[in-house]
Design a protein that fits this description.
Layout: E1 7-11, H1 15-27, E2 31-35, H2 38-47, E3 52-55, H3 64-71, E4 79-83, H4 88-97, E5 101-104, H5 109-121, E6 132-135, E7 138-141, E8 146-149, E9 152-154, H6 158-169, E10 175-176, H7 177-185, H8 193-207, E11 217-220, E12 224-227
Parallel strand pairs: 1-2, 1-3, 3-4, 4-5
Antiparallel strand pairs: 6-7, 7-8, 8-9, 10-12, 11-12
């Protein structure tokens, strides 16, 4: 059986560039999807994660740098920057944010295809990375940082979302205060438990949870918290 073709997402606001890349990538045996801006790129990565992204930096709305940073919050998909910007500082910033390669425009098709092949060979993760969590009627979508409860969107601050997402990644397991503080607030914050209590209280309020009879976030006194998983069929 023939292996499925690698899927490549091309993100560029210039239609002629997208058309040219579509032609040469399909000729190379790849499936191609296109996005004309950063918002569409993030949406495409979330709905059907590609095997590789070719990304322009000068996008309308969400910049290419911001796209890299956002994608790197949940995925290690290879990102090749394809940009007219030649400054060393631009290259360093893109690579520091998580791009695996940087090609300047104008570019040679053969060189770009070689870099695509090299990036795909070096993939660290499969395309089916986990980017959402569903726990009962609670759904957490990492790429767009959205939380819904029984289909109703719950507005969370960035920190509240980060706390909930970390709990969801370890659902039905106790996460210690120190773990949460270190992973969400950063090293050196492990003893600032009052921060954590405030955010857990806010999360419970927004989820309509009762600390005395929790449905979502359970407290293990003196130890940490657990995101509860409802029994099957409940």
């Amino acid at each position: 059986m023939t292996a499925p073709a690698n899927r490549i997402l091309v993100v560029d606001d210039e239609p002629q560039i997208r058309k040219f890349l579509d032609i040469i990538l399909k000729a190379g045996g790849y499936d191609v999807e296109q996005a004309a801006n950063g918002e569409k790129a993030l949406e495409a990565c979330a709905l059907k994660p590609p095997d590789l992204v070719i990304l322009d930096l000068g996008l309308p709305g969400i910049s290419g740098h911001d796209v890299i940073a956002a994608v790197r919050e949940w995925s290690q998909v290879p990102i090749i920057v394809l940009s007219v910007r030649e400054a060393e500082s631009e290259k360093i910033k893109a690579l520091d944010l998580g791009a695996v390669d940087y090609v300047t425009k104008p570019f040679a098709a053969g060189e770009l295809m070689a870099r695509v092949r090299a990036a795909l060979r070096g993939r660290a993760e499969p395309a089916h990375e986990k980017w959402f969590a569903e726990i009962g009627d609670l759904r957490i979508d990492l790429p767009v940082r959205r939380v819904t409860l029984a289909g109703r969107e719950i507005r969370l601050s960035r920190r509240e979302f980060d706390v909930l997402w970390y709990l969801a990644r370890h659902a039905d397991r106790i996460v210690t205060h120190q773990q949460l503080l270190r992973e969400v607030w950063g090293p050196g914050q492990e003893h600032e438990t009052h921060y954590l209590r405030v955010y857990i209280r806010h999360l419970r309020q927004k989820l309509g949870d009762d600390s005395a009879n929790p449905r979502y976030i359970d407290n293990e006194p003196g130890v940490g918290y657990r995101l509860l998983v409802p029994p099957e069929g409940s």
